[in-house]
Amino acid sequence: MIGLLRGELLKSVTTRAVWGFAVGGTAFAALNAVLVAVASGTLDEVPEKKEALAGLPVLLLLWGLVGAAGEYRHRTAAPTALVARRGRGTVLAVRIAAYALTGLGLALLINAVAVGVALPLLADQPGPDLTSGQVAGVVAGNVLALVLATVLGAALGALIRSPVVGAVVLLILALVVQPLVSGSWEREANLSPFGAAGVMTGGTHDTTLTVAQAGAVFAVWTVLATLVAVVCERRRDLA
Q1: What is the pLDDT of residues 50-71, one digit of tens each?
Q2: pTM for the full predicted model
Q3: Where does the chain cross the membrane (predicted)?
């Protein structure tokens, strides 16, 4: 099992996609810090300053989805199970765990860039500075949100099995449906994975959920999607 995890982990970190999403995630973190801390005007409240540290979980959700779905597009999922002499459900669970570990590395990198760019810029803003505890809290929420997003994406990729279809549906939900729902039903929108992730990263601070509650909501979505994906994969073994 450890060898299988090592192999899946190596596969996840050596693809071109992971480096592309790493560049995209760090670029967004830096750009968001500049836009919030400089271009948005005066920031004199702590929640506004926390927003400068926010990441973009949908990027890692997209990476997990595209990567996992690509296993089926390129027909490598079944051979991997045969070589490992494990059931396809077990291989998928290990693959998702490998994506979680890689997602953790990406999350730490993205947050390091966000903190390194945002804090010097926020120092020139009026009002109270972010304390080390507040920064640590935002970073913890961001890291957890990015890791959960990666796992959720990998589970959805295994279910959808088409990188193109999955990416299109995901972007429509995140960029079109979620903002529309949030405008009319904020409480309900916060219970979606996208809404909960926004609260966890500090991107949404006028909300009905605490960061801890949002983390629980996002975790429930992620666990449910992972269980469904693994169960469906095991049923394909029987077929």
Answers
A1: 888 888 899 999 999 988 888 7
A2: 0.88
A3: 21-40, 52-72, 92-123, 135-157, 164-181, 211-232
